[in-house]
Amino acid sequence: MRHWCVSYGLLLRWQVIRLAAVLPVVLVVQAMMAVGIVVGFAFLVPALDPQTALYLSTGAPTVTLLTVGLVIVPQMVAQAKLEGRFDVERALPVPRLALLAADLTLWLLAVLPGVALGLLTAVLRFDVALRPGPLVVPAVLLVAVTATAVGYALAHLLRPVLAVLASQVLVFSVLLFSPVNFPAERLPDWLAAVHDVLPVQYMAQAVRESLTAPLGGVAWTPYAVLAAWCLAGLAVTGAAMARRR
Amino acid sequence: MIEIRDLVKVYRGRRGTVRANDGITLHVGPGEVFGLLGHNGAGKTTLLSQVVGLLRPTGGSIHLDGCDLVARPALARSLCSLQQQAQVPMVGITPRAAVELTGRIRGGGRREVVRRGAALAAALDIERWYDTPGEKLSGGVLRLVSFAMAAVEPGRVVMLDEPSNDVDPVRRRLLWQEVRRLADEGTAVLLVTHAVAEAERVVDRLAVLDRGRVVAEATPSALKGGADADLRVELVLPPGRPAPVLPPCVHDAHHSGPRLVARAPADAADAVGHWLVGQQRTGAVEEWHLGALSLEDVYVRLVGEDADRAGSEEVHRAALVR
């Protein structure tokens, strides 16, 4: 375990030094995107009722976290493959998932200020009452780790061009065809049934409830489903990362 | 120390299969610099990638002090340090950070890697760039930095894949000294290089690979045939003059521009020497050299001058990028 933690710390330091010059730009762009999702999606709906406002406000952080795992991380892996950095990192004596954890930590830290700014924008724009509780931490971590595990597996198993394409298709599906920014009832039955199995709607629900503390209490099903997806994703990713061709 | 037996690596692709390694057997001991020579695509990089666990062998075994490295790739990564053929992208990172962090990641103590990193920078004469961001460094300096990254915490085996590419002649010498020092400290060094003449001075033994097979393995002097080996005869002809008729004992002549290179038996040294002096006096030859065969001569004879091989290199890269 000590080897894992030391490797993680050193890899994180390596990534921070490597990306120090671009991180401020990423921070600003991510903040603009998080605010943009809240403001921009509101244009699609002429009359915002409280429920729609709530879904848009709490959907923005979920979408941002999904973007980290499904877009940024796979694109970084694809770029590393093309630059030759991928094999240099793979030849280092570090646990495979420590590489994933270091990447995830860096990008998570880079987007969290944007997430906070997006929520603040939602409160000011829609007058939504948010009551974030301690469950925000496990909810954010479960969403980010699960998405990153999927993104990493894609990036390791597919060629760089295909991995980037797949990540864009995924984020497009999440934005438009997943019950993140709107309730699942608006989807056709078959698509709603598909989302009963996929983790996306549980991600949105976990984040939403951790930010609003609903009167009926927090549902635990999303956490259980996400934990299962997270473990399965990490297992597949770990195997994909350890795979020798 | 490291035992490679009957190693086979087959790449399967749309255009058929390539046997990049085809039954390679090698042994490298502690303190030994072992050279791997061969054309592009001979299977050298594929061999190193299997030792360090980036590729899975199709057949055969790799053991380090009895440990099965094929079954334990994590152990392989910890015991073997690899300088890869591709340049390490170092945008935003100084050589100091790269060397020290790599040393720490490879299990070195903080003070030790700082000390060793600084010593390597001094020995390779790259101190003045030690704190310069990677994007401002030349290819040769970056190559030396990536050598230092592999050497700072070397483990039991250091594998260097063309470490002298892009490096200037003076620093190449410093590099070879450091390679020798690594071995003298007890590390086994596997060195892939195309700088055959320079490799001759640093390696203890070497193998020549051709189409995935070892076609020769010996010390440099044994490969050259020892004391009874042929001599190398080199003539430089005046511009526009045809080559003179060679004595019967001079054979295997090759022209390259005004230069003619051939071989002669060692016991004909006196006769050939006299003939060369005579040719220069008559003006038929502008300049001449008579000496021992170089390793490069032997290498070219072993693998031929045909560089257009069905190489594994492109297939290897495709396999790793996927």
TrEMBL record, chain A:
<protein>
    <submittedName>
        <fullName>ABC-2 type transport system permease protein</fullName>
    </submittedName>
</protein>
<feature type="transmembrane region" description="Helical">
    <location>
        <begin position="54"/>
        <end position="77"/>
    </location>
</feature>
<feature type="transmembrane region" description="Helical">
    <location>
        <begin position="97"/>
        <end position="123"/>
    </location>
</feature>
<keyword id="KW-0472">Membrane</keyword>
<keyword id="KW-0812">Transmembrane</keyword>
<dbReference type="Pfam" id="PF01061">
    <property type="entry name" value="ABC2_membrane"/>
</dbReference>
<dbReference type="GO" id="GO:0140359">
    <property type="term" value="F:ABC-type transporter activity"/>
</dbReference>
<keyword id="KW-1133">Transmembrane helix</keyword>
<dbReference type="GO" id="GO:0016020">
    <property type="term" value="C:membrane"/>
</dbReference>
<feature type="transmembrane region" description="Helical">
    <location>
        <begin position="135"/>
        <end position="154"/>
    </location>
</feature>
<dbReference type="InterPro" id="IPR051784">
    <property type="entry name" value="Nod_factor_ABC_transporter"/>
</dbReference>
<dbReference type="InterPro" id="IPR013525">
    <property type="entry name" value="ABC2_TM"/>
</dbReference>
<feature type="transmembrane region" description="Helical">
    <location>
        <begin position="220"/>
        <end position="242"/>
    </location>
</feature>
<feature type="transmembrane region" description="Helical">
    <location>
        <begin position="161"/>
        <end position="180"/>
    </location>
</feature>
<feature type="transmembrane region" description="Helical">
    <location>
        <begin position="21"/>
        <end position="48"/>
    </location>
</feature>
<feature type="domain" description="ABC-2 type transporter transmembrane">
    <location>
        <begin position="29"/>
        <end position="210"/>
    </location>
</feature>
Automatic annotation (TrEMBL), chain B:
<dbReference type="GO" id="GO:0005886">
    <property type="term" value="C:plasma membrane"/>
</dbReference>
<dbReference type="GO" id="GO:0016887">
    <property type="term" value="F:ATP hydrolysis activity"/>
</dbReference>
<keyword id="KW-0046">Antibiotic resistance</keyword>
<keyword id="KW-0547">Nucleotide-binding</keyword>
<dbReference type="InterPro" id="IPR027417">
    <property type="entry name" value="P-loop_NTPase"/>
</dbReference>
<keyword id="KW-0813">Transport</keyword>
<dbReference type="GO" id="GO:0005524">
    <property type="term" value="F:ATP binding"/>
</dbReference>
<dbReference type="InterPro" id="IPR050763">
    <property type="entry name" value="ABC_transporter_ATP-binding"/>
</dbReference>
<dbReference type="Pfam" id="PF00005">
    <property type="entry name" value="ABC_tran"/>
</dbReference>
<keyword id="KW-0067">ATP-binding</keyword>
<dbReference type="InterPro" id="IPR003593">
    <property type="entry name" value="AAA+_ATPase"/>
</dbReference>
<dbReference type="GO" id="GO:0046677">
    <property type="term" value="P:response to antibiotic"/>
</dbReference>
<feature type="domain" description="ABC transporter">
    <location>
        <begin position="2"/>
        <end position="236"/>
    </location>
</feature>
<dbReference type="InterPro" id="IPR003439">
    <property type="entry name" value="ABC_transporter-like_ATP-bd"/>
</dbReference>
<protein>
    <submittedName>
        <fullName>ABC-2 type transport system ATP-binding protein</fullName>
    </submittedName>
</protein>
